[in-house]
Amino acid sequence: MSSRRKRPSRNGGIAASFAACRKQRRSAFIPFLVAGDPSLEATPDLLRALVAGGADVIELGVAFSDPIADGPTIQRGSHRALAAGSSLSAVLGIVERHREELGVPIVLFTYYNPVHARGVGTFAAQAADSGVDGVLCVDLPPDEGLRELQPALEERGVDSIYLIAATSTRERIDRAAAASNGFVYYTARSDVTGEREDLIPTLAQEVKRVRRRVRLPVAVGFGISTPRQVEEVAKVAHGVVVGSALVRLVEENAVEPDLAARLERRVGELTAPLRG
Amino acid sequence: MKVRTPLSATAMEPDEGGRYGVYGGRYAPETLMAPLEELSRSYDRLRRKRTFQRRLNHLLEHYVGRPTPLYFAERLTEHLGGARVYLKREDLLHTGAHKINNALGQVLLAKEMGKTRIIAETGAGQHGVATATAAALLGLDCVVYMGEEDMRRQRLNVYRMQLLGAEVAPVDAGSQTLKDAINEAFRDWVASFADTHYVLGTVTGPEPYPRMVRQFHSVIGAEARRQLRRLAGTPDPDVAVACVGGGSNAMGLFSAFLDRPDVLLVGVEAGGRGPALGDHAARFSGGTLGVLHGARTLVLQDEEGQVVGTHSVSAGLDYPAVGPEHVFLHGEGQIEFTSATDQEAIEGFHLLSATEGILPALESAHAIAEVTRRAPEMEPDRVILVNLSGRGDKDVESVLEYDAASGGRVSVRRPSGRHSGSASGDGDAE
Question: How many CB pairs under 8 A join A and B?
């Protein structure tokens, strides 16, 4: 990749959110939930809880029948969401109804097939109209994404976010960095998603390796589940992503009437170290 | 006949990104991109190396049992009363199916790459058994992912893998069949690629799998051509038939005839219980373009892009996507696709058993079913070449169950001559 095709995120979008965090000298907190888990009706309340707890950007997962990059927790979350009738259409509907009210950028975290099935042009238009700020397709590396999806998203002013992995070569890091808008997502572990007791010991070094080559904010995820881990990661990353730990909370409290309140409390605990 | 796997042939290769036209590609999580690039490089280096070719061909000849015979099925031909039917006997290979060609090739490659652990998915169990066998032979650890539904259908193969020293890891997600086993194998590989090679068992997946798996199986078609020349007086059949799940045995056979426009290539998919979505695995009639397991290809899915369940009496064909090169070649008019229902496949199973004393795998029985439709319509001087991709011992229990459920054995009277007997499922008691 030689040309840098940067478009600024739209007003109030992802770039603005990271800029605001930088002004406050802190990292952004980026929680993940599967839309429609445990039900489509519950999702808006859970998203509000994320914001109330201190989310700066929300990663909203689109459930897929074959989530090859996800561990058991998010697999079960996807399964529950699909059983509850979730779909890309339903997710776009939720964003359309609640994006403005929520007031934080939303990144759709999806596998490529649902997007592909809709047609990338149609998807990009609907995503933009619904207020989606960015799209991350787990199984669409820049090699394919730059050609297939990104032109349509750019045309509609929706950010493309790509993953960088511990295995990514320098060339691949550069490619993902040049292709991404908003931020890049560094997966801290070569593994499927899921909570882990310990962060990998070389994490700080590896994030620095990526940061040296990337001008955009670097968010780090995969395996982060405790306030202590959030604090550790925040020392080296512009953004901290927590997924499985929250999906597990939803799973364990799905039938509790105060599910949203419990989620807000947990997110509050996780963001406490960032507020200093 | 010497065993020569045409590994260094470069005809009909995909582009650098693994694309056949708009199909194929490398749609994988970023973590796997560098390992996949390394795999492509290692494969391209080794397949051209004489020592690697010699080692593989030596094992194929002395361990696996290549070349496999090409057999003129005289009584089946008589029974059908039309074209001459030749069977490529991949069922006679060590472990009982064509799968060993690819499994051995990849495990040998993995060993050269310095990997110490092998993982694989399996549906019918044939690819799992083949991979476990190759891993045992070459002294590597082996884990085979298998859907729980398939473990039930193929419990003998489960025990075979365990006897071979492999761990069979049950997959209880989703439909508990082949696609879920592939999902689980990918999840393992995302975390284990440093010391582990994933032996994908068919011509799909991200680049380089479709071309690599095809190449390891291309020995099937190359042999068949040489054998046909001797036996039938022509290297080119009028029709070549193979069943298509992912499509590896078909690609192996068809690869020898892609530059022969006079050969009609026919792939047979699983028609299952009928044409409703979820009741079959016929991607060419019910599938739409999608991206699954690393490749853009035809996928059985709903309008929201969720992959739907499939059904086939044969576990090896029970898969919602198909190898991308098949889709490309179909678009180019090079391969025709059709399907056979569960019932037709069971009838084919009985027919070949009764007329030739050969129990075909239920997968291969789909190809036999197509032959029973096609041969009678053709002149007796015409030639049909069928890939008998596996043997049916593993399926005896499934056939027994099927026959019991349909109210009695699907009957095929032993033919006494031309035009005698019937292949109908009339429930005739013994």
Answer: 123
